[in-house]
Amino acid sequence: MRIxxxxxxxxxxxxxVSLSVHVFVVSSQCPSDDQQSLLLQLKNSLxxxxxxxxKLKQWKNGSDYCYWEGVSCKDGCVSHLDLSxxxxxxxxxxxxxxxxxxxxxxxxxAYNNFNTQIPSKFDKLTGLSYLNLSNxxxxxxxxxxxxxxxxxVTLDFSTFYFPRTPPLQLENPNLNVLLGNxxxxxxxxxxxVNAYGAQWCExxxxxxxxxxxxxxxxxxxxxPIDISLQKLRSLSVIHLExxxxxxxxxxxxxxxxxxxxxxxxxxxxxxxFPKKIFQVPTLQTIDLSGNQQLQGSLPEFxxxxxxxxxxxxxxxxxxxxxxxxxxxxxxxxxxxxxxxxFTGPIPRSMEDLTQLVYLDLSWNKFNGSVPLFSMAKNxxxxxxSSNLLTASGKLRTFPAFLRNQSRLVSLDLxxxxxxxxxxxxxxxxxxxxxxxxxYNFLVALESPLLNLTSLSVLDLHSxxxxxxxxxxxxxxxxxxxSKNNFSTGIPPNIGDFLNFTxxxxxxxxxxxxxxxESMCSAPYLQVxxxxxxxxxxxxxxxxxxxxxxxxxxxxxxxxxSGTVPDKFxxxxxxxxxxxxxxxxxxxxxxxxxxxxxxxxLNLGNNQIADTFPCLLKNISTLRVLVLRSNxxxxxxxxxxxxxxxxxxxxxxxxxNNFSGEIRGKCLTTWRAMMGDDDDAMSELxxxxxxVLKFTGVYYEDAITVTNKxxxxxxxxxxxxxxxxxxxxxxxxxxIPEEVGQLKSLYDLNLSxxxxxxxxxxxxxxxxxxxxxxxxxxxxxxxxPAEFAKLTFLSFLNLSNNQxxxxxxxxxxxxxxxAASFTGNKGLCGMQLNITxxxxxxxxxxxxxxxxxxxxxxxxxxxxxxxTFGFGIAIGSxxxxxxxxxxxxKAMYNILLKIFPQLEERIGIHRRHVHIxxxxxx
Length: 921
Known about the structure:
signal; single chain; cell membrane; RLP23-like; 921 residues; alpha/beta; Leucine-rich repeat, LRR (right-handed beta-alpha superhelix); 11 helices; glycoprotein; Receptor-like protein 12
C-alpha cells in the first residue's frame, strides 16, 4: 500500500514531537543514585532509637527509595519527607544531606528530640511549601533563613512546654521580620514559641493576607487585640490561649464568616464577651475557660448552628441556659460550663442533644430537676455536682437516666444530698473508669464494686457508709474511703487489690484490728492514709521498707504501739511521715536519715525517748518537724556543722524534757523563716504531694499546731506559715538574739521554761509575728518599747515572769488585756489598772524604772540603831529560836523599805526553801 507524502510528513512530525517530549521528561528526572545516596547519608548521620523507629530502620540500599516509609517522589525527586516520631536525638546540622534534597516540598520532622538549634541551611530548600518542626526538641532563636522560604503555605514550630527546657525564641529576627516575605502562608503555628511584644497583630495582618489558621497559644503575647487583624477575612481558626492579652474580645471576630474554632482560654480577657460571636454559623469550637474577669451570657443560638464544643469553665458567665436556644445545638458533643454563675433550671431541651459525650455543669447555681439525658447514648462524663438541683436544693436520688448510659466513662455526683444505698444498677455500668460520689449521705453499698473492672478512680469519701470493708477492682488507681463509718478490720488480703493503686485513703473511719502486711506488696503505692481510726498492734516493718514509691505514710491518731521500725531503705522516698497521737515508744529511728526527700515529719504525742535527732540535719527538704509531747531530753540543736534546714517552717518540740540554752546558731540555718516579702518563698501556696501528675490530683498535708494559745488543725499547711513552739521544756539562759533574724516568723512560743534575762529588742524585727507567748519563765527587765513595731501582733502573753517597769504606752500594746501581763509584780500600766506614779503602789516598781520613791532616812536610821543595839543587848539569846526569828524578820522589813526590789528575789528564794523543807518533812 502506498502512503501519500503528506502522511509521511505527518508521521515524522508526530515521532519528532514524541521524541522531544520523551527527551524533556528524562532530562527533568533526578538521578536515582543521587537521591537514594542522599537519603542513606541522611539516615547514617541521624542518631535515632531503632527500637522505636518505624521508618528510618527500613531504609535499605537496593530497594526503590520512592516507596520507603516516609518518602514520596515526583518524577524521581524526593518531594515529601516525613520523619516525624522517629525518636531522633541528633545528627542534623548545616552540612547534612537533608539540605541537598533540594526538590523537597513537604518536610515533617515533628515529635523528635534534636535538642539543638534549628540549622540555618533551611534556606537551601527553596521549594518548601510545608515545614513542620513542631515538638522536635529544637531550642533557641529561630534562624533568619526561614524568612527566605517564600513558597511556604504551612509553617509549624509549635512546642509543648517542658520544665528546664528553653523555648524557641523569636527575638532577632522578631515576628515581623520572620513573616515579612511569607505572603503565601495559609497556616501559622507558633504555639509555645516566645514571640514577645504587643505588635503581633500588625506583623501578621500586614504580611499574611491569605492566612486561615492562626495558632499562637502560650507565646507570651500581650494585648490588646488590634483592629488590623480584621483584614484577615479568611481566618477560620484563632488560637490565642495562655497569653497575657489583658484585653477585651473584639466584636469583629463575628465578621469572620469562615470561623470554625476560637480558643482564648487563660488569656486574661476582660470586659463583656460579644454574643454575636456565638452565633457565627460555621463556629464549631469555642473555648473561653479560665478568664475570670470575662463576663457574658449565652445568646439565642440559631437553628443551623454548627457548635460542637462549648467551654466556659472558670469564666464569669451568668444568666440562664435559654430553653429554646440550647436545644438548637444538635451537634453539641462537649459542654463544660463549670465554675460559672449560671442560674435557673437546666433546660429540658437539652434532652434532645443526642450527640453529647462530655457534660460538666458543676459549680453553678442551677436549680430544679435534672433532665433525662437518655437520648445521649454516648455520654462518657457527667458532672452535676455543686448546684442547687431539685426543689430541696440538691440531688437526693440518682438520676434515672443514668441507668441506660452503658458507655459512661466518668460520673461525678459529688456534693449533693443523695441519700440511702447506692443502687445495684450502677455496678452494671461496666465502662465506668471514674466514679465520684463524695460529699453525699450514702449509707450502704454492696460488693458488686468488683464488677466495675475498668474502674481507675473511686472516690466515696465524706459519706455515711458503714459495714464491712468494700472490696474494689484491682484496676483502681485512686481509692478514697475516708470520712465514713466503716467499722470492721481491713481485709488481710488487701494487697491483692492494690496492684495498680497509687492513692489509698481509709482515714477518719472506725477501722480496727492490725495493719495487714499484705499492703507492703503494693508495687506502685504512693499515698497510704490510715489516720484517725482505731488500728492497734505495731507498724509492719515491711511498710517502712516498702519499695521506693511510697511518699506519704499517715498513721496518726490510732492505737499503734511498739517502736518505729528502723528499716528505712537507702533510697527512701518518703516525703511525709505522720505517726502523731499513738503509743509508740523506743528510740528515734536512725535509718530515717536515708529519707533525704522528707518534707513533713510528725512524731508528736507518743512516748519516744531520745536526744534531739541531729541525724536529720542534712535533709535540706525538711519543712515540718513535730516532736511534741514525747520523752526527748538533753540539749536542743546539733554541734557543728549545723546542717541545712533552709526550708524548715514549722518546728514543734513542746512538752519534752529538753534542757540547757537554746542555741542561737542553730536557728540561723532556717532560711525559710528569715526571708523578706520579696523572697520566692513568700509565694502563697500549701504543702501537697502530686499523686497523679498531669491530672491535678494531690495529697494535702495537715497538722495540729498551738497558735494564739489555742490548739488548731491546719487542714492546709501554707508555705508562708512559720511557727516555733519550744514550750513546756526545761530551757534556761536567755532568749537568743538570733531569733530576731527570723523575719518571716508568724508564731513564737517559748512559754513554761526557765528562761532568764531581758526580752531581746531584736524580736521587734519579726514584723510578721501574730502570736508570741513567753509566759511562765523568769524573764526580767522591761518590756521593749520596740514591740510597738509588731503591727500584726494579735496575741501576747508575758504573764508570770519577773518583768518590771511601765508597760509601753503604744497603740499596739494597749489592745491587750491584763491577762497578758499578770504575775509580774514589778509591772505597772493601764492594762493592770496600776498607775506607775501612785505611792501606794510604787513599791512594785524598780528604782531605775523612772518612778523613784523618796526614802525617809530619819525614821529608818532610828529603826536601824534600835534594832542593831537591841540585837547586841540580847546576844546571849541568839540561840533562842523565837528571838532569832523576830530579829530576822525586823531586819528583813527594814531592808525592804530601802531596797523594795529585793522582795522579788528574796521572796522567791524563801518560797523555794519553804517548798524544800516541806518535801523533806
